[in-house]
Amino acid sequence: IGCDYKLVSTWSTSDACGNTVSDSSSIVVSDLKKPVLSEKPASVTAQACVDVPAAATLTAADNCDPSVDVEFTETKAADLTCAENSLTIRTWTAQDACGFVTSHKQSVTVRDTVAPSISVTPAASTVSCADDMPVPTVSTDDCGEVDVVVSDPHA
Description:
Layout: E1 4-14, E2 20-30, E3 36-37, E4 44-46, E5 60-61, E6 70-80, E7 82-95, E8 101-110, E9 117-120, E10 138-140
Parallel strand pairs: 4-8
Antiparallel strand pairs: 1-2, 3-5, 6-7, 7-8, 9-10
């Protein structure tokens, strides 16, 4: 139908004797409203990467357009102090057939405060040289790679 249009309605009535009368009215329809996004998620700060919530799937409703698509983008905005601390901006945008746009942004901040873990530590042993010292074989971190550093008090 379009964004701005005119509806003309005509009513007619007649009686048993054949007398007829009709009347009409005109209504101008103008879409002036943006689509509305559902369930807008709040911004979040996570203490570990595994705590970052999955992106929500938003829908849009519009007063004149029955099928408004929602476009989703996710952009890593910045690394904060180290690679495991970050700011990601999630954006949902809906545009109706008349060109009206609405959007919602969610900031997802990760401030990694969870220490990495060493899950396999070498057993106590005797070695002939410090260079032969075994290192942990399994070290993990929720937010990224782990550097294993062996400290030698005799170095």
